[in-house]
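agent> Task received from the user: take the single chain below, predict its 3D structure, and emit structure tokens. No templates, no multimer pairing.
agent> Plan: (1) validate residues, (2) run structure prediction, (3) serialize to tokens, (4) report one or two observations.
agent> Step 1 OK, no nonstandard residues flagged.
tool_call: predict_structure(input=
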Amino acid sequence: MPGDLILLTGGTGHIGFATLSYALNAGYHVRASIRRPESVKEMKAAPSIQPFLQNLSFVTVEDITKDGAFDEALKDVVYVIHLASPLAKNAGDDMENNVVQPAIRGTMSMLESALKVPSVERIVITSSEAAVIPVMAMAGKPTDEVFDQNSVVPKPSGPYPNPFAAYIASKVLSLHATQDFMKEKSPSFTVINIMPSFVWGKNELATTPKAAVSGSNARVLEPLLGVKSPMGLPGTTVHIDDVAMLHVEALNPKLQGNQDFTANSEGIEGLEWNDVPEIVARKFPEAVKSGILPLGGSQPTLRLKYDASHTEKVFDFKFKGLEEQVTNVAGWYIELVEKEKMGQAKA
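)
tool_result: status=success, residues=347
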């Protein structure tokens, strides 16, 4: 409940910081676990959390994969939101040890530490659509199957052909490991997994145009900047605000624990990626004309069915649609470009 203490990991990430901001605005006290102490200054400077700094503290956990990594960080904590996980871009040549195993060990380390802390009541974990959709479907293999929070993907094994495959494996195996842990240990706390699709939306910690074109936001911005992608992507996206909300509202003790929730917009059929430029041309004609968003790129769409209707029913809301997502990202990018130009003019 608001006023209680949350331990939040991954707060410097896109979803993590949005979730941190939502939690503070909702009245929670947050202890943010960070890997690098120098992150504190950047996070505290963000406008959305300025009014709530008295409710925000930090703890440094340099290696979340170590046994007992969170033992001290969990002291007096009631809720955990575990968002930290390695990214595919950091895979290198050893994808098993740079992506897959750290994701599993990081989650298991949190769960094992929580067993030792009686105050912990619930842990919300950031999973992914990749945890419940087979890799071949994610890669575009045609299927009429509808995937949801109850879908089961068999445990994959390496070697992995590319970093994205390793990332998908990390999410599948982390989910299996969490489910096995809950069955074997029967802890007093409950676990909820949030399973978002591609997450679009303003990243408050990305303060330059270059920084904005990263992560899932790169998938929407690159075609607007003229990039033609040869690789198709599933037509499944979700607004950052909705994902942050779900992570925090899932802490509500009135909500039954030990269940999972998908996060995806535009219904089961999803979206058409190449509708994005049309929205931008209509909403931001001056930015298109001036060349801030020159358009001209493309992003092929892969069709798969990812159902988030159960989430909408339980949380009693509707996911923000494609137009609102695109408007949020494009408008934010335009602001960053204009701010950068003003800074250069003053210099």
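agent> Step 4: summary for the user.
The first strand starts at residue 5 and ends at 9.
agent> Done.
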